Amino acid sequence: MSLDEVQCLARDYPETFWTEAAQNITWFKRWKRTLDKEDAIFPKWFLGGELNVCHNAVDLHVETGRGDQPAIIHDSPVTGTKRTITYRQLQEQVSRLAGVLVKHGVKKGDVVVIYMPMVPEAMFTMLACARIGAPHSLIFGGFASKELSVRIDHAKPKMIVTSSFGIEPGRRVEYIPLVEKALELSSHKTSKVLIYNRPNMEKVTMHPDLGLDWEEEMVTARPHECVPLPSSHPLYILYTSGTTGTPKGIVRDTAGYAVMLKWTMANIYALKPGEVWWAASDLGWVVGHSYICYAPLLHGNTTVLYEGKPVGTPDAGAFFRVLSEHGCSSMFTAPTAIRAIRQQDPQAALGSQYPLTRLQSLFVAGERCDVETLEWSKRVFGVPVLDHWWQTESGSAITSSCIGLGNSLSPPPGQAGKPVPGYNVTVIDDVMQEVQPRTLGNIVVSLPLPPGAALSLWQNDELFKKLYFTKFPGYYDTMDAGYVDEEGFLYIMSRSDDVINVAGHRLSAGGLEESVLLHPGVVDCAVVGLEDSLKGHVPLALCVLRKDLRKRQEDVVKEIVRLVRDTIGPVAAFRNVLVVGSLPKTRSGKIPRSSLASLVNRKPYKISPTIEDPAVFKDIERVVKLELRPAEK
């Protein structure tokens, strides 16, 4: 069946569709009812069933003869090490670690906070928690103590699992002082902290009443079997906000998540068990949870865990090396990573030395991918490059080219695919009327949401309903703006609050950015609204130029203005361009446009704790003060 036919089946007969998909998961006890949608905001999937995600992701492969297949390849250019863990070795490590957790009082339903770098032991801990039914809350290693303390107070973990050090290019991050400070700040008192001391570095400890040594505990640990868990049992909590306001912890269930992830690996990404897959993300993001850890292991793939950057570890050829050396069949990354490579090495000369003989496809997500970046990627990687769209709340793609169902490998440029089966997507205006094709509107999803979507917010059902289901009753509000074309492809333009109102005309920041990026000298840009006494707002572009550009900067700026006016038209009132050295990005590659908008309008702005390099804001602030006169506002 085609994607459109499968989508219709999932829409009209969801119980039939997801009953079939669930056959690909191994159950301890088969479910009695596939879907209860009496409360459409809180649907219940696979009622009465019992399973264990760790059993499906680890033990099952050993039992079916895949024990000697690599499960995880840890490639760490920041430490100069590589390590391969087979499924059998993974089972040994995870079952022993589960025994350590149980020995120290962690039981089904207890939360475990994981605060670790990109090391296999972080994945061992995720899986060990899943093995015994302890929801994990994985927080970026190196996150500030204040941020960590807020999450500790909200999640109330029984145990914290951490590491001695994280390694960033050119520096080492000491985790234990950050954990100790967070525990001082938090009112909740965790009973134990398990410390993984990284090899070839000095050993660190905590107070003996609190600290446990990973290696010592693992030596004496008794392996623990997988615990059968109800379908709706919470697998993890993933926080999406900083310290302001109430923490928002997305809760994911066990059964729905496992069923959806297994389905996506075969049908969206067209992966076969045994193939090597690489999601170039961080375990602390939803991509890391879903597509570094759980999905590839559920599908019997080898997953690459990369502790490095797209550039600087050591250079812009790093991604090509990893793909070539490990024989990756498919890859998932963010457009911002590709732009960073393109800025440093516009001709991809550093990557040309690495043959990509096994690479079949490259998927991008995390932010809108402009056409120029997409076309450059196709040229240098030599495979189809496919944009798709999803959110932390969804846990997997909402729209995509499902190439496992035989979809086109060359869909129209700029689109993010068609709705994935289970996601019934509509574009509506502010009074909930469906808009015409190619008309910018609010992207919403009909209820109930499919398996794998967020169950709720941790201990806050009311906030969950208020945030996502109040503005447009009967729909999930994605808070993204975009449009659908005549063929049903969705185009994500920006967050709803990134739409710029210019003299009554609603302009998408994403559409303006795409026009700017058509200039061959621009490798990255962000467009925000600049306050204007006459028009309300006018667009301002912050542009990063290619390193090898030979033209004068003022000439490039004039060309950009002319290009945008030619492609968008005079309605954009586009005349403000500032050239900056780089743009601030979160660790998942998103641009904090609201903070940048406050900055350029000379208002106080907040720097999110997830920003990779906060100093970039000060650099942009200097450019704004030098080149943007207040009279232009």
Automatic annotation (TrEMBL):
It is an enzyme of class 6 (ligase). Residues 512-590 form the AMP-binding enzyme C-terminal domain. One of its GO terms (molecular function) is acetate-CoA ligase activity. It catalyses: butanoate + ATP + CoA = butanoyl-CoA + AMP + diphosphate; acetate + ATP + CoA = acetyl-CoA + AMP + diphosphate; propanoate + ATP + CoA = propanoyl-CoA + AMP + diphosphate. PROSITE patterns: AMP_BINDING (PS00455). Residues 12-57 form the Acetyl-coenzyme A synthetase N-terminal domain. GO terms for biological process: lipid metabolic process. Keywords: Lipid metabolism. Its EC number is 6.2.1.1, 6.2.1.17. GO terms for cellular component: mitochondrial matrix. InterPro entries: ACAS_N (IPR032387), AMP-bd_C (IPR025110), AMP-bd_C_sf (IPR045851), AMP-binding_CS (IPR020845), AMP-dep_synth/lig_dom (IPR000873), ANL_N_sf (IPR042099). Residues 66-446 form the AMP-dependent synthetase/ligase domain. CDD domains: PrpE. Belongs to the ATP-dependent AMP-binding enzyme family. This is Acyl-CoA synthetase short-chain family member 3, mitochondrial.
